[in-house]
């Protein structure tokens, strides 16, 4: 690999950053152009930090700082997902020099497309976490007392599970999936927070669950204690919005920043749900 | 009320390892929990931990290890500033903690036979560290996150994610009756009444601007408790990691294995030499670790590497770059295939974030703030065997009744310096261990969450609303920008209070920080809106960094010694100089006398209380419980170590008999 630092020999003095902003849910979105001083070794996070500090557009208009989400800044927490130059990815690992090498004129930042915008680049990913409840994504241990070690686990199983266990719930795979449609509800007049959440969850639970949760189901079904709930998980994935909704477009695996073998999990789920259905039919 | 026939209602602030372990255990014990976090708990800073988690185990036991040795390594590594009973309890629980995490599904690396694999970490001779690939913290956090999600779907836990804890609610007796928090989306400020409140909000690295920590690690939550009257212990003890990758937004950890595998540290002899590193011939490179420490070379221990790199850049002005401090960590002399085999994973991190291949070009690195040993003071009850009394309500309670602190935001376990892979352990252990303490505390109260007076809740919300409104609209004529003040604060703290500390610099910084604090109180915000206003949330966190930063500076100024991570060159204990045996013996005696005298004075926790009138911390000193393992000097690399050790061992043997009689007599 050639280092991008040397590949853009003429470092620009300034960077143009075009941001798709939205003041609140349901509001109209609008573009805003910012110009910031180029520094070496910047990523999109530091670009947004500079924008927040100067809070002025390219034509000198005072604006509010752009809202966005971030946490670890080392691509392990899943917070900072957005669409950068047309591609969904983590912004902390989006290096400015690389982006400029592709498009020297500007960097374009947009919020994720499949989740409701909260403000600017912040989106509401509650549905993603809801899907982990839908597949009962946990090991159903008896208690949190010390009851001795867990079962021995062959190295191959660890090596199979570990990559799946790195899913950081960023949602890149969902944003890129043609079968995953945005769900955006608004709280009704007089509806309590709890009632609204319930209505929203009901809606989420009917819709396509997405690659990340499918892969998590396989993770837990491959754990000696986790598999106690295997049938329930397969049941959840057999229903509406389950595995059959997946059109196998494989966009998900192409964008996953953790390179999780999602299509393998999907294929395994497909086989397992079929077996599960046959088994159920015989048990009738 | 929280009488024993009713489930305890607990508010847990923070969902890192400590907060999640606490939540999970409390739910199991029948409590209902409101879990409040700045971020979805799955995204907490604990995900960043790479290395592993320690416990004595079946393999190490057969080589002579025991929980007692883990305790010993921890307090020796902490330069004896750790209260020993909590450390002992933690070491005893460590094997159990790992077994539980194993049952919860953490994909620990396995041996061929399917046992949990272990590696060796700094500060011990034993292979105690269990690990899950290079993402141990992430894997541990996920296992707890999953269990808490399970509790949530069973109804015992409610999560409030994207909420900022603003402060404890205290009644007229000072007892904590709940918490006030703000919804980061709607900006609603709300009171959460509770029988008890747990603060598990992690470290405070952002006081230094950039560190190896996540953006959530502002220390604001601990500071809000501190300002409400909670004591803060050992603020001056901040661990610095020698090799981090300086980024514009964050300083990312570069594993020490890069030096272990043959990495060479150097700078151009000519300051800010503009040539590409490969163009600089060997004779014009300064391999300063190799020159200054011919014996150890690049493998000098962490703290020495840190100090030397700092010295080269700050005092010698030999930083590779003129506008930023860094030195080269060079691996380019090692064949590519060898690097890929041994260091593949970590070199990819560098490549990913720097966009430069460290196999072709030397890495640029600099030390970075990494961990806060200090934090909220927390009590404990010592048991007859020198550990902690299980279920005692005071375990991990701050001096504010009903307010508990645990995880990186408390001041326990790590003393003056943290051992690698001990923090994940302390977080999970504390969360699990204190469950019964908190439930027992709630049960012993005659009033609880349900009968907190409405007026108390309302006035607590009101006070926070006023602060919020004032920030939005109170400083119309000021041009102070919170982001720029944060940069200044970070620069100042990094300059005077990281690796090398000098009293003149510290005193000067204390004046500067007063001025910055005042300016921070007058910030004028670019965003005065009432929807997802990150500007105002940051401004609050920034203002609340100052009390902790002030406690840190003052603690450092008043501590005229070197202990653990706190290094003052003006107070180094000198090596022995004489070759003559009698004179050398005399010098060793004198050295030990001086060491003892120094311990009399400084082997004490620094305890800060916030004085709202002066806007300054007041400091007092607390004795450290060293009843299990008597303090001994750390002599690594010191000339004359053998002679000193001999004298010391003789003295220790003489006092051991006395110690035995009153070892377990006093309770904390
Ligand atoms: C790069 C790196 C590597 C490390 N590697 C290791 C290792 O290998 N082994 C080891 O033992 N230790 C390691 N550590 C240290 C260890 O990761 C941390 O000490 C530990 O994870 C802290 O956990 P915690 O539960 O105390 O807090 P955190 O995980 O920091 O969680 C804090 C929680 O509090 C919440 N919070 C904070 N402020 C507020 C507020 N105002 N309102 C509401 N919520 C709030 C946050 O949202 C979060 O949920 C490492 C640290 C770093 C930086
Ligand atoms: S393979 Fe399935 S989940 Fe993945 S992008 Fe395609 S439709 Fe979506
Ligand atoms: S599977 Fe990959 S892309 Fe999808 S949420 Fe997990 S880490 Fe993100
Ligand atoms: S900030 Fe954590 S993934 Fe980017």
From TrEMBL, chain A:
Has the keyword Repeat been applied to this entry?
no
- Decide whether keyword Iron is in the record: yes
Q: Which GO terms describe its biological process?
A: aerobic respiration; respiratory electron transport chain
List the cofactors: [3Fe-4S] cluster; [2Fe-2S] cluster
One MF annotation (Gene Ontology) recorded for this entry: electron transfer activity
Q: Which InterPro entries does the entry mention?
A: 2Fe-2S_ferredoxin-like_sf, 4Fe4S_Fe-S-bd, 4Fe4S_Fe_S_CS, Beta-grasp_dom_sf, Helical_ferredxn, SDH/FRD_Iron-Sulfur, Succ_DH/fum_Rdtase_N
| One Pfam assignment | Fer2_3
Keyword list (alphabetical) reads:
Iron, Iron-sulfur, Metal-binding
Please report the stretch or stretches of sequence annotated as the 4Fe-4S ferredoxin-type domain: 156-188
Can you tell me which family this protein belongs to? Belongs to the succinate dehydrogenase/fumarate reductase iron-sulfur protein family.
Question: In its UniProt entry, what is this protein called?
Answer: Fumarate reductase iron-sulfur subunit
Could you tell me which species this protein originates from? Allorhodopirellula solitaria
UniProtKB/TrEMBL annotation, chain B:
Q: Which residues form the Fumarate reductase/succinate dehydrogenase flavoprotein-like C-terminal domain?
A: 486-636
Tell me the keywords, alphabetical order: Cell membrane, Electron transport, FAD, Flavoprotein, Membrane, Oxidoreductase, Transport
Q: Which SUPFAM superfamilies match?
A: FAD/NAD(P)-binding domain, Succinate dehydrogenase/fumarate reductase flavoprotein C-terminal domain, Succinate dehydrogenase/fumarate reductase flavoprotein, catalytic domain
Q: Which residues form the FAD-dependent oxidoreductase 2 FAD-binding domain?
A: 10-424
**Gene Ontology BP, a term:** anaerobic respiration
Which metal ions or organic cofactors does this protein require, according to UniProt?
FAD
Q: Name one GO molecular function term.
A: succinate dehydrogenase (quinone) activity
- Where in the cell? Cell inner membrane
Q: What is its main location?
A: membrane
The yes or no answer to whether the keyword Nucleotidyltransferase is present is no
As recorded in UniProt, its EC number(s) are 1.3.5.1
What reactions does this protein catalyze?
A: a quinone + succinate = fumarate + a quinol
| Superkingdom of origin organism | Bacteria
Gene Ontology cellular component list = plasma membrane
Q: Where is the active site?
A: 302
Q: Of which family is this protein a member?
A: Belongs to the FAD-dependent oxidoreductase 2 family. FRD/SDH subfamily.
* This protein's name: succinate dehydrogenase
């Amino acid at each position: 690999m050639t280092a991008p630092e040397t590949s853009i020999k003429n470092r620009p003095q300034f960077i143009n950053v075009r941001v798709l902003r939205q003041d609140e849910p349901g509001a109209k979105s609008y573009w805003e152009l910012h110009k910031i001083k180029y520094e070496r070794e910047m990523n999109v996070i530091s670009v947004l930090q500079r924008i927040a500090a100067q809070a002025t557009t390219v034509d000198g208009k005072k604006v509010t700082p752009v809202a966005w989400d971030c946490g670890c800044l080392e691509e392990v927490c899943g917070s900072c997902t957005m669409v950068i130059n047309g591609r969904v990815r983590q912004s902390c690992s989006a290096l400015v020099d690389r982006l400029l090498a592709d498009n020297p004129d500007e960097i374009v930042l947009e919020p994720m497309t499949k989740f409701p915008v909260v403000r600017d680049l912040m989106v509401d990913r509650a549905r993603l976490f809801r899907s982990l409840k839908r597949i009962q994504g946990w090991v159903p241990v008896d208690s949190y007392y010390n009851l001795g070690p867990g079962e021995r686990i062959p190295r191959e199983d660890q090596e199979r599970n570990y990559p799946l266990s790195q899913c950081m719930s960023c949602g890149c795979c969902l944003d890129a999936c043609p079968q995953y449609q945005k769900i955006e509800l608004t709280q009704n007049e007089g509806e309590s927070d709890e009632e609204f959440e319930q209505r929203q969850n009901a809606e989420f639970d009917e819709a396509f669950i997405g690659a990340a949760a499918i892969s998590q189901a396989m993770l837990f079904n491959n754990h000696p204690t986790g598999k106690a709930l295997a049938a329930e998980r397969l049941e959840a994935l057999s229903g509406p919005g389950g595995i059959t909704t997946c059109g196998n477009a494989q966009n998900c695996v192409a964008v996953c920043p953790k390179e999780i073998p999602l299509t393998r999990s999907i294929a395994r789920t497909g086989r397992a749900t079929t077996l599960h259905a046959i088994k159920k039919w015989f048990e009738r | 009320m929280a009488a024993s026939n009713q489930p305890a209602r607990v508010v847990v602030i923070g969902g890192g390892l400590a907060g999640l372990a606490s939540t999970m255990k409390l739910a199991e014990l029948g409590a209902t929990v409101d879990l409040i976090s700045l971020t979805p708990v799955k995204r907490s800073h604990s995900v960043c931990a790479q290395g592993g988690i320690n416990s004595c185990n079946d393999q190490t036991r057969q080589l002579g290890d025991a929980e007692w040795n883990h305790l010993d390594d921890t307090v020796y590594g902490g330069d004896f500033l750790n209260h020993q009973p909590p450390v002992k309890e933690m070491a005893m629980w460590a094997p159990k903690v790992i077994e539980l995490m194993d049952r919860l599904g953490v994909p620990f690396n396995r041996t061929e036979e399917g046992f949990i694999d272990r590696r060796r970490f700094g500060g011990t001779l034993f292979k105690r560290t269990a690990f899950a690939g290079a993402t141990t913290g992430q894997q541990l956090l996920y296992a707890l996150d999953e269990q808490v999600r399970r509790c949530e779907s069973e109804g015992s836990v409610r999560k409030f994610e994207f909420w900022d804890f603003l402060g404890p609610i205290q009644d007229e007796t000072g007892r904590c009756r709940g918490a006030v928090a703000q919804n980061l989306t709607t900006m609603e400020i709300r009171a959460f009444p509770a029988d008890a409140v747990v603060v598990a909000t992690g470290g405070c690295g952002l006081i230094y601007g950039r560190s190896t920590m996540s953006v959530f690690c502002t220390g604001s939550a601990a500071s809000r408790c501190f300002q409400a009257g909670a004591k803060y212990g050992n603020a001056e003890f901040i661990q610095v990691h020698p090799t981090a990758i300086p980024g514009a937004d964050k300083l990312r950890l570069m594993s020490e294995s890069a030096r272990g595998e043959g990495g060479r540290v150097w700078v151009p002899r000519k300051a800010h030499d503009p040539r590409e590193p490969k163009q600089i011939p060997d004779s014009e490179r300064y391999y300063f670790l190799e020159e200054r420490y011919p014996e150890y070379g690049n493998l000098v221990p962490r703290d020495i590497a840190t100090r030397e790199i700092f010295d080269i850049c700050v005092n010698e002005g030999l930083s590779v770059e003129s506008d930023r401090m860094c030195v080269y960590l060079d691996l380019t002399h090692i064949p590519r295939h060898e690097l890929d085999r041994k260091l593949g994973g970590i070199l990819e991190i560098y490549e990913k974030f720097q966009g430069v291949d460290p196999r072709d070009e030397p890495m640029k690195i600099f030390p970075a703030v990494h961990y806060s040993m200090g934090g909220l003071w927390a009590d404990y009850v010592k048991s007859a065997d020198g550990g902690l009394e299980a279920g005692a309500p005071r375990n991990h309670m701050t001096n504010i009744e009903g307010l508990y602190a645990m995880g990186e935001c408390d001041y326990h376990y790590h003393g003056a310096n943290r051992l690698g892979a001990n923090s994940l352990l302390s977080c999970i252990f504390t969360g699990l261990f204190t469950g019964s303490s908190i439930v027992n505390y709630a049960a012993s109260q005659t009033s609880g969450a349900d009968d907190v007076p409405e007026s108390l809740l309302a006035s607590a919300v009101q006070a926070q609303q006023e602060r919020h409104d004032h920030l939005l609209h109170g400083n119309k004529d000021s041009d102070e920008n919170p982001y720029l003040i944060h940069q200044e604060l970070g620069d100042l703290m990094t300059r005077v209070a990281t690796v090398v500390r000098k009293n003149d610099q510290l005193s000067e910084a204390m004046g500067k920080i007063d001025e910055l604090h005042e300016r921070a109180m007058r910030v004028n915000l670019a965003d005065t809106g009432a929807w997802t206003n990150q500007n105002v949330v940051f401004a609050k966190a920034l203002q609340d960094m100052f009390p902790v930063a002030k406690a840190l500076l003052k603690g450092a100024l008043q501590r005229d010694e070197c202990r653990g991570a706190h290094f003052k060159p003006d107070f180094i204990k000198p090596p022995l100089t004489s070759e003559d045996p009698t004179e050398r013996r005399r010098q060793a005696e004198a050295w030990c006398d001086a060491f003892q005298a120094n311990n009399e004075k400084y082997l004490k926790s620094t305890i800060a209380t916030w004085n709202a009138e002066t806007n300054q911390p007041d400091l007092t000193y607390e004795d450290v419980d060293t009843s299990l393992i008597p303090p001994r000097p750390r002599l690594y690399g010191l000339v004359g170590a053998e002679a000193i050790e001999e004298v010391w061992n003789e003295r220790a043997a003489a006092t051991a008999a006395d110690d035995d009689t009153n070892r377990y007599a006093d309770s904390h």
